[in-house]
Amino acid sequence: MIVAIDGPAGSGKTTIAKLVAKRLGFFYLDTGAIYRAFTLKLIRLGFPIDDLKKICDILDSTSIDIRDGRLFLDGEDVTELIRDPEVDKRVSLVAKIAKVRERLLPFQRRLVSGKNAVVEGRDMGTVVFPKAEVKVFLTASLEERARRRHKELIQRGKNLSFDEVLEDLQKRDEIDSNREVAPLKIASDAIIIDTTGKTIDEVVEEVVSIVLQRYKGDSILST
């Protein structure tokens, strides 16, 4: 069973998806983290996004792995490093490159092959897992998302103003929604949950309830 959770930056996808996966006993996949890892590598190499051949060559020689909930880039644990503000600013530019998405898509599908999984990103229910049994689209007001992201960055010791975070989210929304390949959009059969003003626990309960109500009694939930 695949539970696909999509939504814009700061909507709570990562936190909610992790907790839902834990509640259900499912494998958890943050596809955005894969793009972040590759973005981190490109930043370290001078961010050559104008050279498509070079980007593809770099991607072909890149190893990305998930082990015990940790993300490894070429053998290095980069779980925390991929949340750096510099990665935040540039990941949407990398994620909109058609060749990058084309090459990473089968990798994402292989990671959950044969598993019950909660997957989260921006095109899970529309492109990567269009036949997912449950599709949820999380949203929240821009200001709410900016407050959450600003608080998260402050807690990690990153000194960015609220206005800087707000502007960055606006730019990411525009890039993600208007890119030619796999833009951020709501799947026609997705359930929309506005998380503005809701606690994490409330949203988790809502998503878990959707899964259980739709597949109550299905043996797959007891695995």
Can you put this structure into words, describing what you see?
It is a single chain. By secondary structure, the protein is α/β, with parallel strands linked by helices. The protein has a single domain (2-212), classed as P-loop containing nucleotide triphosphate hydrolases (Rossmann fold, 3-Layer(aba) Sandwich). Helices cover 50% and strands 15% of the residues. It is built from nine helices and eight strands. It has helices spanning 13-24, 31-44, 52-60, 85-95, 98-112, 124-128, 142-155, 162-178, 200-214, and strands spanning 2-6, 27-30, 64-67, 70-73, 76-77, 117-121, 134-139, 191-194. The chain has a five-stranded parallel sheet, sandwiched between helices. The longest helix is centred in the last third of the chain and has 17 residues, at 162-178. The radius of gyration is 17 Å and the shape is globular.
- Span between N and C termini? 11 Å
Which structural category do the helix and sheet elements fall into?
Answer: alpha/beta
CATH superfamily: P-loop containing nucleotide triphosphate hydrolases
| pLDDT < 50 stretches | none
What is the CATH top level name?
A: Alpha Beta
Return the domain count.
Answer: 1
User: What fraction of residues sit in β-strands?
Assistant: 15-25%
The amount of helix comes to 40-55%
Number of helices: 9
Give a count of the beta strands, DSSP E runs of length 2 or more. Answer: 8
Shape: globular
- Report mean pLDDT, rounded to a whole number: 92
From the 3D coordinates, which CATH architecture would you assign?
3-Layer(aba) Sandwich
